[in-house]
């Protein structure tokens, strides 16, 4: 073997051994609204630990059904607290692994500058064709949106509601201009502590029930060291800073 | 029965959508299929390929482009707004237009095959008997192509009933307007209402099976698109 080749061989074997001893993949299912922050956290997690996060995003209800039917997920970041609680009751998670990783905030948003005022009076004016929300039966942000509409007694806008199957689609309807405005997750339009564009009204938290987002280690992740490390990482200061930068609150 | 009022509304809406789409497709698809069957133009290949695109494209691609094109910033959306019609996503009309694109190959291809199978001979004979083109089409071509027309109608209808991706992407899940059976099944599954999901999903399996059974046994032919 020539010298450069043998060097390459040694380097390669060394990296394989390194892989075998340290790096591990974690299969993660993540609710649509937390996709972007999780990607950022995963990148930093990979850099710090060498473990790789393989994330599948989807609607919480859909992920639940997949888990019940044998999906290979090891960690689950839900958009609510009821689905993880249900999984816990049904014995599908590692006992005691459930915790609140973020508290979601609802925002009324339009991509147009100055369209949504800082008090949400645009809802009372009712001068739009469509208002987009996520499906209230399946998406916590959709449910929160209907709570706001009910609390403010905005019955007149109800026929103008269009529903996305999850919060991503609700956002997409607004972003594409098909609905003039919509109730979306603050995390979708917020980055580094400010709005990424358009105009918004961050809905006061007393108008809807808190959106507690829980994460769990699923039974498939029972023996995974990387899954535990990821959960610890999420609870740590680096992840907390990222989660906050997307406009979520953290549990005190 | 475990069907709620909303389930029943979804079933009616779906049947309405499929009926209207099939009727429109027979009107639009027949001339296209006739042209494709008879032409020697170099455009035959490209047009045939465009018609067949929905066979291979994921419905999400069609749904996404329809959402963008028919939206307020898209060319189709600008046109409908200028005509005072508003925009088409989230409307029943929008779904009909989407379905027409989506189910087009299922209507055009059987028609085209039926027209091609007739060949030149009957048309030449008719011409020597001084039948004009319209005469020829209505008294020779349509009766001879009847099995193809029936196949086209059944496949177009059944395929529209089963449409999901486009409706999900441009519909907005509005009960009685854009919430079809397939979307309602999706809603039930997402909401973990598996009993209702089973009723509708099982119904779809039966419906689809009997449609295909009727199709294949009535023609006493081997399964296939033609």
From TrEMBL, chain A:
The answer to whether the entry has keyword Nucleotidyltransferase is no
**Keyword entries, A-Z:** Metal-binding, Molybdenum, Signal, Tungsten
Give an example GO molecular function. molybdate ion binding
**Alphabetical GO biological process terms:** molybdate ion transport
Q: Give the signal peptide as a residue range, or say none if absent.
A: 1-23
InterPro entries, per database record: AvModA-like_subst-bd, ModA, ModA/WtpA
State where molybdate binds. 60, 167
Q: Which SUPFAM superfamilies match?
A: Periplasmic binding protein-like II (SSF53850)
Q: Which Pfam families match?
A: SBP_bac_11 (PF13531)
Q: Does the keyword Metal-binding apply?
A: yes
Self-association and partners:
The complex is composed of two ATP-binding proteins (ModC), two transmembrane proteins (ModB) and a solute-binding protein (ModA).
Q: Of which family is this protein a member?
A: Belongs to the bacterial solute-binding protein ModA family.
Record's protein name: Molybdate transport system substrate-binding protein
Task: Write down the species.
Answer: Azomonas macrocytogenes
Question: Upper taxonomic classification of the species?
Answer: Bacteria, Pseudomonadati, Pseudomonadota, Gammaproteobacteria, Pseudomonadales
From TrEMBL, chain B:
Its placement in the membrane is given as: Multi-pass membrane protein
Alphabetized InterPro entries for the sequence: MetI-like (IPR000515), MetI-like_sf (IPR035906), ModB_ABC (IPR011867)
Tell me yes or no: is Cell membrane among this UniProt entry's keywords: yes
Gene3D superfamilies tied to this protein:
MetI-like
Task: Report the superkingdom from the record.
Answer: Bacteria
Q: Where would I find the ABC transmembrane type-1 domain in this sequence?
A: 11-217
The Gene Ontology CC terms held by the record are: plasma membrane
Instruction: Name where it's found.
Output: Cell inner membrane; Cell membrane
Q: Which residues cross the membrane?
A: 12-37, 49-70, 82-102, 197-216
As one GO molecular function, the record gives: molybdate ion transmembrane transporter activity
**Which keywords does the record carry?**
Cell inner membrane, Cell membrane, Membrane, Molybdenum, Transmembrane, Transmembrane helix, Transport
Cell inner membrane as a keyword?
yes
Mind telling me which PANTHER family this protein's record contains? MOLYBDENUM TRANSPORT SYSTEM PERMEASE (PTHR30183:SF8), MOLYBDENUM TRANSPORT SYSTEM PERMEASE PROTEIN MODB (PTHR30183)
Role this protein plays = Part of the binding-protein-dependent transport system for molybdenum; probably responsible for the translocation of the substrate across the membrane.
**Family, per the entry?**
Belongs to the binding-protein-dependent transport system permease family. CysTW subfamily.
- The name of this protein is Molybdenum transport system permease
| Source organism per UniProt | Azomonas macrocytogenes
């Amino acid at each position: 073997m020539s010298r450069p080749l043998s060097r390459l061989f040694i380097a390669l074997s060394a990296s394989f051994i390194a892989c075998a001893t340290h790096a591990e993949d974690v299969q993660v299912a993540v609710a649509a609204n937390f996709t972007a922050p999780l990607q950022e956290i995963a990148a930093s997690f990979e850099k710090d630990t060498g473990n790789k996060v393989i994330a599948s995003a989807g609607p919480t209800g859909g992920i639940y059904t997949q888990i019940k039917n044998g999906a290979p997920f090891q960690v689950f970041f839900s958009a609510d607290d009821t689905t993880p609680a249900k999984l816990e009751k049904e014995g599908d998670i590692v006992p005691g692994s459930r915790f609140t990783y973020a508290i979601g905030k609802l925002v009324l948003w339009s991509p147009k500058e100055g369209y949504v005022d800082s008090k949400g009076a645009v809802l009372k004016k009712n001068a739009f064709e469509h208002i987009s929300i996520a499906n209230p039966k399946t998406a916590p942000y959709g449910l929160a949106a209907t709570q706001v509409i009910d609390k403010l007694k905005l019955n007149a806008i109800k026929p103008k509601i269009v529903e996305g199957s999850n919060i991503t689609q609700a956002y997409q309807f607004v972003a594409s201009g098909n609905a003039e405005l919509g109730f979306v997750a603050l995390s979708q339009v917020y980055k580094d502590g400010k709005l990424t564009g358009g105009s918004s009204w961050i809905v006061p938290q007393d108008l809807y029930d808190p959106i507690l987002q829980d994460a769990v280690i699923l039974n498939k992740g029972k023996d995974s060291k990387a899954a535990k490390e990821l959960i610890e990482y999420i609870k740590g200061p680096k992840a907390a800073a990222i989660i906050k930068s997307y406009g979520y609150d953290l549990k005190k | 029965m475990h069907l709620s009022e909303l389930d029943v509304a979804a079933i009616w809406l779906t049947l309405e959508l499929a009926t209207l789409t099939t009727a429109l497709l027979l009107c639009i698809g027949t001339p296209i299929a006739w042209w494709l069957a008879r032409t020697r133009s170099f455009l035959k290949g490209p047009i045939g390929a465009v018609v067949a695109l929905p066979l291979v494209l994921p419905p999400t691609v069609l749904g996404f482009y329809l959402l963008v094109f028919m939206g307020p910033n898209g060319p189709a959306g600008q046109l409908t707004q200028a005509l005072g019609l508003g925009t088409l996503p989230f409307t029943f009309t929008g779904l009909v237009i989407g379905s027409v694109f989506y189910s087009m190959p299922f209507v055009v291809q059987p028609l085209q095959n039926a027209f091609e199978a007739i060949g030149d001979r009957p048309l030449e004979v008719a011409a020597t008997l001084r039948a004009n083109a319209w005469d020829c089409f209505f008294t020779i071509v349509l009766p001879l192509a009847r099995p193809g027309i029936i196949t086209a109608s059944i496949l177009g209808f059944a395929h529209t009933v089963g449409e999901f991706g486009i409706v999900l992407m441009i519909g907005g899940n509005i009960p009685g307007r854009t919430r079809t059976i397939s979307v309602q099944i999706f809603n039930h599954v997402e909401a973990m209402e598996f009993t209702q999901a089973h009723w509708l999903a099982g119904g779809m399996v039966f419906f689809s099976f009997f449609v295909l059974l009727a199709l294949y046994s009535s023609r006493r032919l081997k399964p296939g698109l033609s």
